Amino acid sequence: MSTVRVAINGYGTIGKRVADAVDAQDDMEVVGVTKTGPSFGCEMAVRKNFDIYCTSDDPDMIASFESSPFKCKGGLKDLLSISDVVIDCSPGKMGAENLGKYQDAGVKSIFQGGEKHSLTGLSYTSCANHSENYGAETTRVVSCNTTGLSRTLVPLYEHCGSLKVECTMIRRAADPGDSKKGPINAIKPVLKVPSHHGPDVMTVKPEIEINSLAVAVPTTIMHVHAIIADLPEGHGLSTESVIEMWKSSPRVIVMNGEGNRITTTAEVMEMARDIGRKWGDLHEIFVWEDGVRLMGNRLYYFQAIHQESDVIPENIDCVRALMEIEKNWQKSVKKTDDAISSYYNI
Question: Band of the pLDDT at 178, cuts 50, 70, 90?
Fold first, then answer.
């Protein structure tokens, strides 16, 4: 198959990362990114040689670029006309309007976890349901938290055949660059019970029985999950074998917290910077080895999620599923991760 032409609609926190990840692959290319108007993000796109388009087809919005140093090649319709698939990284709740535009243009589409499953009727994470998304017209890459839960729970389910899970999501209040949100000096419980995070796992792996609670805390660095999973009788696992299972699972990092002096999310992200990750990103889920304990049939563990980056490689694998490039999810994951690592010389 020829190189897949990928449009990025929205070049912000997620969009700029997705664009770089697409650019790293040898079977796809970025044909353009969109911005609402001239901004520093346009400067970043220019440095990467990404063509800039406007998120709208409104002539006035397109004209706003004319007095800037950035060349706008047209509106969203123009970008879609040269694309095979669009990765929608626009702000949440714009999905229904955008989906109609993508369908009218005859372009396949991938949305992010800020949109509801009902928008597409299909959701995606590589380890759970890559094959179910193969050849689909539109889907939704699940949220950072759902992605993180899937990466550690799906291997457990595949071994055990059934799984009942309760988890508490300790959520960052905002992304580092978002100064408009809080709380600043409070812990804010999410009073919708269950929170959407656990049930969202069931959109990609409905066989896992899971519920969740969530609280927002005044940090911007990472999310932390406190997870209790009930395994069936005769599961044949031990604490050590569970740890080994995760160590051999893609996009999961298992490290001893006390032994490596990485006992907090701040230290996890410092490690990501130390190993040379751009933006200090950590695409993998971080599990504290010394926080894992299997007692009979009940498994306890903690994991940390870098909300800005864990879904990025998932978008790349999702392109391969929709465009029918690679049906084997493990092969796609390896290709994606190897290309990203080489791109940044990690």
Answer: confident
> Pick from 35, 98, 47: which is nearest to 72 by CA?
35
Chain segment 181-237, per-residue pLDDT in tens: 889 899 999 999 999 999 999 999 999 999 999 999 999 999 999 999 999 999 999
Per the listing, tokens 């049939």 go with 297
Spell out where 121-237 has E strands: 123-124, 138-141, 164-172, 188-189, 209-217, 223-230
Do 132 and 157 share a domain, yes or no?
no
- Is the same domain home to 254 and 154? yes
127 is catalytic: no
User: How many CA atoms within 13 Å lie on the side-chain side of 134?
Assistant: 12
Number of domains, the chain: 2
Q: If DSSP codes are grouped into helix, strand and coil, which group holds residue 165?
A: strand
Catalytic choice (42, 54, 72, 144): 144
208 and 284 together in one domain: yes
Sign of the C-alpha dihedral, residues 139, 141, 142, 148? positive
Is there a single domain that holds both residue 221 and residue 324? no
Q: Which helix (H) or strand (E) holds 227?
A: strand 223-230
Q: Do 290 and 322 fall within a single domain?
A: no
Separation between Cα atoms, residue 322 and residue 132, nearest integer Å: 10
Q: Where are the alpha helices (DSSP H) in 248-299?
A: 257-260, 265-274
| Token couple for 112 | 């992010």
**How many of the other CB atoms lie within 10 Å of CB of 13?**
17
Estimate the crossing angle of helix 312-322 against helix 13-24, to 10 degrees: 60
Residue 346 pLDDT grade (very low, low, confident, very high; cuts 50, 70, 90): low
Check whether residue 96 and residue 187 sit in a common domain: no
CA trace torsion 79, 84, 88, 94 (10° rounding): 70
pTM, two decimals, is 0.96
- 30 has which bridge partners? 6
Find the CATH number of the domain harbouring 324: 3.40.50.720
293-307: pLDDT as tens digits? 999 999 999 999 999
174 residue type, one letter: A
